[in-house]
Q: What sequence folds into this?
C-alpha cells in the first residue's frame, strides 16, 4: 500500500460532542517544515517583523488611493522591532515581500513566518500614495510578546461632533475619545464604540476634536468617499474607513 500525507489533523467540528464528519488539518507542506525544524533544532522558529496588520477593504483602499483592496495595513509597530528599525510606519500597506506580491493579510503572515531569522528581506510598502522599498532584518518570533499598551484616557473639557460620521467626541491626553455613536451610522456598523480613541485621521495625528472635524472636512473637500481613522481600544490599534455622509 502506498499513500501520501496531505495534512495532519488538528481539530474537528463538533457542536454536540460527537463526530459530524468535519475536521481541520494542517497542510502537509507546513507540517513538513515544522518536522524538519524539530528534527534539526528541537524547536520551531518563525520569522517576525513586529507589526499588527489588518485586512484592506474597498473603503480603506479608496482612502489610501490604492487601485484595489490588497496587501496588509499596518495598524501598529512594536517597539524595537525589526519593522520599526526598517522604517515601517503605522498606516503603511505591505504590498510585496522579497518580490512576491501580497494579496491579503494571510499571505503576509505566512510569508514572514516562513522567513529565516537574521536574514534580510525587501519590503515594498504603500505610503503617501506611492510605493516605497525598505530592507528589514527578520527577527525571531518572541515566546512572550506584548505590544506597548496605552493608558486609559482622561477626558478634557473640549468636545465636538462629526455629523457626517455620526460621532460625538471629547478631548483626552491620549487623543480624541468617542463619546457616543449614532446607531444608524456607518461607524456603528463597523464596530466603532464609545470609549475608542481616535489617534489619526487620514494619516495625521489628532489631539483634539477640532482636528478630527478638520480632517473629515478635508477628506470631504477632496471628494473622498470615505475617511480613514486609526483607533485605539485599550492596548490595540486598528484602522477603520468610514463612509462620508454627503447629505
A:
Amino acid at each position: 500500500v502506498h499513500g501520501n500525507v496531505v495534512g495532519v489533523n488538528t481539530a474537528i467540528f463538533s457542536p454536540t460532542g460527537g463526530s459530524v464528519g468535519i475536521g481541520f488539518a494542517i497542510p502537509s507542506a507546513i507540517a513538513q517544515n515544522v518536522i524538519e525544524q524539530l528534527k534539526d533544532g528541537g524547536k520551531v522558529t518563525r520569522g517576525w517583523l513586529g507589526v499588527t496588520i489588518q485586512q484592506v477593504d474597498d473603503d480603506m483602499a479608496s482612502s489610501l488611493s490604492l487601485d484595489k483592496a490588497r496587501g496588509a495595513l499596518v495598524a501598529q509597530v512594536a517597539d524595537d522591532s525589526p519593522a520599526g528599525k526598517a522604517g515601517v510606519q503605522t498606516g503603511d500597506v505591505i504590498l510585496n515581500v522579497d518580490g512576491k506580491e501580497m494579496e491579503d493579510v494571510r499571505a503576509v503572515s505566512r510569508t514572514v513566518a516562513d522567513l529565516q531569522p537574521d536574514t534580510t528581506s525587501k519590503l515594498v510598502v504603500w505610503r503617501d500614495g506611492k510605493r516605497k522599498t525598505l530592507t528589514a532584518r527578520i527577527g525571531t518570533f518572541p515566546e512572550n510578546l506584548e505590544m506597548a499598551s496605552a493608558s486609559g484616557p482622561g477626558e478634557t473639557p473640549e468636545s465636538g461632533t462629526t455629523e457626517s460620521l455620526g460621532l460625538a467626541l471629547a478631548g483626552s491626553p491620549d487623543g480624541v475619545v468617542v463619546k457616543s455613536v449614532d446607531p444608524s451610522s456607518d461607524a456603528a456598523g463597523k464596530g466603532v464604540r464609545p470609549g475608542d480613541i481616535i489617534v489619526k485621521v487620514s494619516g495625521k495625528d489628532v489631539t483634539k476634536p477640532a482636528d478630527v472635524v478638520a480632517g473629515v472636512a478635508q477628506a470631504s473637500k477632496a471628494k473622498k468617499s470615505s475617511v480613514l481613522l486609526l483607533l485605539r481600544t485599550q492596548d490595540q490599534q486598528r484602522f477603520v474607513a468610514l463612509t462620508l455622509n454627503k447629505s
Residues 47-140 form a domain with the Pdz3 Domain fold (CATH 2.30.42.10). Residues 146-157 have pLDDT under 50 and may be disordered. The longest helix spans residues 28-41. The radius of gyration is 21 Å.
